[in-house]
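Mods, move this if it's the wrong board.
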Amino acid sequence: MDLPVVDKAEALSRLDGDLELWEEIREIWLSDVGSLIDSVEAALSARSAEALRRAAHALKGASANVGATRVSATAREVEGSALGADWPALDALVAALRVETETARRELPTA
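Not the wrong board. Structure tokens:
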């Protein structure tokens, strides 16, 4: 994936350059992302296409707000594919989403 793990400049541009607000959003994301990815994985395990779509949508939006571009892009793929219920493909996508989430989780505190 050619996207940066974190694009702080993009996130700041959507926040009118408000660094303090971005830092607040970053702290919220770091606090909440574990439960967000867990919800995606739970919906996948339950083979609930609509729950998976909703959970991926929530993770996509939260990640876009903080500039976690790879997480947001991968969550968008999961969201768009969920209702097709191609479970083997979704298993692989959600595994990739977990990896991207953990990578962003490591990089965001120093961004």
